[in-house]
Design a protein that fits this description.
The chain is of the alpha/beta class. The protein has 19 helices and 16 strands. α18 packs across α19. The N and C termini lie far apart (55 Å).
Length: 462
Amino acid sequence: MSDTCKSAPRQPPDPLQGRALVVDDEADLRTLLEITLGRMGLEVVSAANLAEARAALKGQAFDLCLTDMRLPDGRGMELVEEIQQQCPQLPVAVITAFGNMELAVEALRAGAFDCVSKPLDINVLRELVAQAIRQAPARGAAGQGDGLVGESRAIRQLRARVAKLARSQAPVFISGESGTGKEVTARMIHALSNRADQPFVAVNCGAIPAELMESEFFGHLKGSFSGASHNRSGFFQAADGGTLFLDEIADMPLAMQVKLLRAIQERRVRPVGAEQEQPVNVRILSASHKPLQAEVEAGRFREDLYYRINVIELQVPPLRERSDDIPLLAEALLARINGHYAEEGSTARFQLSDDALDALLNYPFPGNVRELENILERAAALCDGNLIVADDLALDARAQPRVPGTSMGSFSGDEHGADAGDDREQLIAVLEAHRWNRTAAARDLGLTLRQLRYRIKKYELE
C-alpha cells in the first residue's frame, strides 16, 4: 500500500455519516452491503479484490473498511496488516466463514476492529458499523491523569499497548498479580475507546454465589424463581453499548463458563425465565491473578472460553519491576488521601520525609500498588503532624528487602547511618566514571534522573 494512503477524520460531524470501503469478490454480497450501509447514511465504495481496494485507499479517505478474508488475489489479512501500517486510525472489520474462530482471532491480533461471520446477521452488522464510525469523545494524552501513574519503561510500554487496543473491539485478557492495577488498565482501555460515553461495568466473578450467577449476568423475569418479584436486567444488559469487565474470571464455575461462552459468541443473552434471547453489544475485557493457561490444563477453566477471551493478552507489571515509579505513585496517592481529608474538613497535607521515601524504595511490595496505597493511608492516620517518617510506614519486616543494585533503590543508607559512606562512595565512583554525565550515571545505577538528583543533593555532591 502506498504511503499516500488517506484516512478520513475519526470524528465525522454525524456519527451515521461517512464513507465505507467494502471489499468482497461476491457481487451479491457487495450489493447487500452497499444497500445496508447506504440505508445507514454511508457512502459506499466497493472493490472486488486487493488491487482495487489498494487503489481506492490510495485515492480516497474512508471511515471504515469491511473486507472478506478470502479474495481472488490474496487474503483480507494482507489488507488488515497494510492498513495497520499506513492508516492505523482506520477501523477494519473482517468477514469470516461461520465458525472459523482461528481466522477471526488472527485478524483481531493483526489489528482488525472487529469480525462478523457469514451468513451475515444484518443487525449485528449495523451495530458493528455504527460502533466503528461513531463520534469518539475527545481524549487527552495518556498520562498520569489516566490512573496508570509512572514514567518507567514498563508503564510507558503498557500505556502504548492500551492506546492501541482501545481502537479495537477485540477481547483482551489482562493478567498480573493482585494489586497491580488490572481494573485501572481496563478502565483506561474503555476511556480511550469509542465506547467511552457508554457504561463500564466491572464484575468480580469470584464474589457472586454460583446459584445467582446466571441471573446476575443475564437478568431474569418476574416469577422465574422464588424471590423474583420483578423483572431485572443483568450485567450484559447494563453494559450494552459499552464495556463489560470480568475480574477474577478464573473463579467462575464451569457450568457458568458454558453460558458465558455462548453469550460472547452469539452476542445474545437469555434472561432466566425468558423464551427469547436479547441482542447485546458489549466489549469483553477480563482479568485474573491466576495463570489462566494453568487453570485450563488443570481442567478448571474451559479451553474454548480461554481462546475466546484471550484473543490479546495484556500483562500488567508488578510494582517491584517498575520501582522507578514509586515516588510518583506515592505522590499521587498522597494527593488523593489529602483530598479525602479535605472533604472531611481537615487541613492536613501529608508529605513523605526523605527516610520514608528511602524505605519505600527498598521495600519489595508483595501486594503491589494496592499495598502501597494501604501503607500510606495507615501512615497518614497514625503519624504525628503532617510529615510521614519511615517509622510511620510500619513496613512488614517479614518481606524480603530488594537486593541492592537490582533496582533504582540500590542506595539504602541514610547520611547519618552505617551505610551512608559506602553509598556515597559508590555514587561518586559511578559519576566520575561517566565524567559526571548524569543521564549515563542514572542508567548505570538503575535510577531515574529525578532519583539521581535526589541522591546527589542528599550526599551534598552538587
